[in-house]
Design a protein that fits this description.
4 helices; Riboflavin_synthase-like_b-brl; single chain; globular; Elongation Factor Tu (Ef-tu), domain 3; six-stranded antiparallel barrel; transferase; about 30% strand; about 260 residues
C-alpha cells in the first residue's frame, strides 16, 4: 500500500548492487565565462524542434567533456542503443536536455553544449564516468509511453531525500516556487528526462516527490545520485499553456479607435 506521508527526511537507502555512482576525474569549469561570438548570452530557443516521451532508452556514460578546439563545449557519451540509427544533426535527450549530435561512431556520440544550456541545466555537474539518461527523439510511428517532453529544461531541482519502501524508492525534490506551481499531484514531470508521476506536492517546503519501482531504478540515473545533487526538471507544458491563456483572457484589450 502506498504511504500517505512521504516527506520525512530519512537516511538514503541501499541501492541495488548493480547500480554504482561513478565519480572519477572531476572536471571543473566556469560556464558563466562562456559567451557567444558577439560577447552576449543568447536567449534559449523555445521553438519545438523535437519531441520525447520521457521513457529512457538506455544509460550512457560520459567519456569526455570540456572546451573543444572550435571554441565550444563538447560532451562525448558512450552508448549503444541510441547510436544504432543516429545521423548527424539528430536530437538526443541527455538527462532530459535536447542536444544535437555533431559526431558519432558505433560506440559513442558527441553533442555540443551552448552557454545557456550549461547555465540552465545540471549538465555542468557531469564528470568523466557519470551515467546519463538517453532517449532519441520521438518518431511518428513510436508508441507514446510517457508524456510530451520537449527536452527544454525549465530549471533544476535538488534531491533532499531518498527513502526505501520495500523494493521501491521514494525521492523528494526541492524546486523553485516558480516551477512548483506547474507541478500537481498525479500529474507529469520529467526529472533528468524521465517521465514520472508526481505523488505529493508540499508548497510549504517547496518540494514534490515521486516513487521509482524496482525496474525503473535499474534503468535510469536518478538512484545513482546523492542527496544534495541537482536534477533537470521539465514541467508539463499544458500547465504553461493554460496559464498563458488565462493571462491573455484577463488582460484588458486596448481599444482601437
Amino acid at each position: 500500500m502506498m504511504a500517505t506521508q512521504s516527506f520525512s527526511l530519512l537516511p538514503s537507502p541501499q541501492l541495488p548492487p548493480n547500480i554504482a555512482s561513478v565519480r572519477p576525474n572531476i572536471l571543473r569549469f566556469d560556464s558563466s565565462k562562456l559567451t557567444t561570438k558577439c560577447g552576449r548570452h543568447r536567449r534559449q530557443n523555445l521553438s519545438i524542434r523535437s519531441v520525447f516521451t520521457g521513457i529512457v532508452e538506455e544509460m550512457g556514460q560520459v567519456k569526455d567533456m570540456g572546451l573543444a578546439d572550435h571554441g565550444g563545449f563538447d560532451l562525448k557519451i558512450g552508448a549503444r542503443v541510441v547510436v544504432e540509427d543516429v545521423k548527424l544533426g539528430d536530437s538526443i535527450a541527455v538527462n532530459g536536455t535536447c542536444l544535437t549530435v555533431t559526431h558519432f561512431d558505433a560506440e559513442e556520440f558527441t553533442v555540443g553544449l551552448a552557454p545557456e544550456t550549461l547555465r540552465k541545466t545540471s549538465l555542468e555537474e557531469l564528470e568523466r564516468g557519470s551515467l546519463v539518461n538517453l532517449e532519441r527523439a520521438l518518431q511518428p510511428v513510436s508508441r507514446m509511453g510517457g508524456h510530451v517532453v520537449q527536452g527544454h529544461v525549465d530549471g533544476t531541482g535538488v534531491i533532499v531525500s531518498m527513502e526505501a519502501e520495500g523494493d521501491s524508492l521514494w525521492v523528494k525534490v526541492k524546486a523553485d516556487k516558480a516551477l512548483l506551481k506547474y507541478i500537481v499531484p498525479k500529474g507529469f514531470v520529467a526529472v533528468d528526462g524521465t517521465s514520472l508521476t508526481v505523488v505529493d506536492v508540499s508548497d510549504e517546503e517547496s518540494c514534490f516527490n515521486f516513487m521509482l519501482v524496482a525496474y525503473t531504478q535499474q534503468n535510469v540515473v536518478i538512484p545513482t545520485k546523492k542527496v544534495g545533487q541537482k536534477v533537470n526538471l521539465e514541467v508539463d507544458i499544458m500547465g504553461k499553456y493554460v496559464e498563458r491563456l488565462l493571462l491573455t483572457i484577463n488582460t484588458p484589450q486596448e481599444k482601437k479607435g
